[in-house]
## 1
Amino acid sequence: MVKSQREYNNQGLPDSLQCVKKLEAAGFTRAQAEAQAETFLTILKELVTKKDLKETIRETKSELTQEIKAVEFKLSQEIKAVDSKLSQEIKAVDFKVNQEIKVIEFKIEVLRRDLKIWFGGSLASLVLVLSGITTFLAHLIH
């Protein structure tokens, strides 16, 4: 059965006068009908309505949306800070690696120079020894 608008007040609750009239029509005394209607309406006021639920859901969604945005912003800031710190650390490591590479390259050049000197000295010594042997053999033959 569809209820008419005048059977409800502006809070969406049944009209107390209409409740009393219906209870009287059902055989209740005026005092009984008023007590029943008052009790019934007091209970209904404490119940959660669909409108209440929708409003609570809307408010909760709004609060959650704000919280999510705040968390996203905070995470974004933290990610930027970590990214900046990592970039600085990578640059520091890169600098150290480049310094180590330069030290190693220098040591390689020193070793290369030392090898040339050693090889050149060995070659000169070998030439002197061969020259000495040649001279010695030449004296033996003559």
## 2
Amino acid sequence: MAKRFLYIALLLILVNIAYVYSQNDEESAAESIEVDDLDSFFEGIENSVDDLDTPTFEEAEENEDSEVIEKEQEMYYPPPEPVPEFDNDTEKYIFYARKYLPEICLSLVFLVYILNVFVGKNLNSKLAAMWLSEALPMLKDNFHHLGFGDQPNASLSQISYSEYQYYGSGRDNCQYLFMHMKMKKRQDVIGGSLFGIIWPEKDRLILDIPIDADLPLELLLCPKDQVKKNQQEMPNINQLISQIKFSRLSSTNIVVLSESGEVADLVLSTKFTSILEKYEKYLEFLHFTDQKVYTNNPLVLKAEIYIGDSPAEFKNSVELVEALLELVDHIATNVKLPTRILDKAKKNRKGEEKKRQQVRTDHLPLY
């Protein structure tokens, strides 16, 4: 009896399952397909698939990419704003000026930079040529050959838009005169114009003159506010010289550093100190040295002076250069150090040479 009920329950379950599979689901809307054999069944499936307008994988991917591109274009390239109607030309100009304001500002900055380069370099070239024109009569009186090249000339050698060089040779008591003009960086908007307001610069002339004299001479002149800077830049020279009182320049802002007051008194002639008192504002640096810190010549004059900002000041700086040339003649022909000073100077230099040799030895690599 129990088995009979079990069979009836299984039969009802199978009937229910068959009924469920035979019905159409509302969501899937599946169609029942009657087939006589497997070949016709699969052929019908292929025909039904071909009839569907379903994109392939490549087509779907292309469609998806095109949609992404369209969205990106809408995001990064929005449609242009509609141009309003203008009542007059003024409104039109104001509209486009506001619309393209960043481009206009950048164009103006670029234009100002280009104009500053051309104006600055031309002004530097003009000022350098004007100073040389003022100095040429004096240079011709002192040197047989002027300028670079085989033939004498009055052409400056341009190193950059703010630096120029000139050369003179063929003079007694010195081997040559080398002039290096460092003008303000007028062609540089940032370094010359903007920073120049905070840290103003001056047009300078740097002189190198090897003197035909065999003297153990170390002498430095500079403004008071430049003493510490020069001492830091030349620590080896500081062991030989120190600041001294020099009565003939006591009324000026010039400080004298020498091995002794007697040496300074012999080297700095009265004529030169009187001229220096008059033109002290043009002198930034004057150094006589036998330590070969600039060249390999036994004795060198190194000077740095301001050339000035106007033709009147050009004339004053030229007179200071002429006074330096006369001082070279004075050192080469008139300065004779006493034996006591010579012996002391030689002794000091031997001691400094031993210290330098020891430093070089300590820094030699060990193998």
## 3
Amino acid sequence: MRRKVSILISIGMAGSAMCSALLCFIMIANVCSEEQARRMVNEHLLNESEFWGEYVIPSVSRNDPAYNDYRDGEINNYWRGRIWGPTNFLVSEGLKRCGFYREAHLFAKRSINVFRKEWEEYSHIHENYDADTGEGCDVYNSDVFYHFGALLAYLGVQELIDVEPWGGIRFGNLYGGMNEVRNFIISNLVSFFAIVF
């Protein structure tokens, strides 16, 4: 029997309600109803005034006061709206678990774009990224070489091949669109690939 789960998760200071990326995490456990999942995706995730945009997904919604709060000399700092690889990975898993394959595909594409922007310019894999600009070097507390930033690129790999806990090994994406790998070069020191959507 499926439990009824609230769509908004209340976190924040002084008991304030905050709409955060955590709202999609309950989709991984598949404990929300189809209606709740549809509302989370359509009303919140794909809403450009909250989470959707060129660079996805901010840790708090773009219309939350914490997102534009000026802290430590910077706006969009650390958990106040930055993009985090582990968050994107878990949101992507939740989308696929609840059957939002097209949205997961688009989400993976935008996540790769965040990763590629810093990688192609500086060869950095950041801890977190600015949700407005996609930059990782814009704040002092975003580590330049942080392993879980690579989860943003891994979402693209999952569009080619994935091992799913409920379905085994899968080749190709769940959405049905075409993907390909170009310029795959292997030498003694270098391995490079570009995933093309």
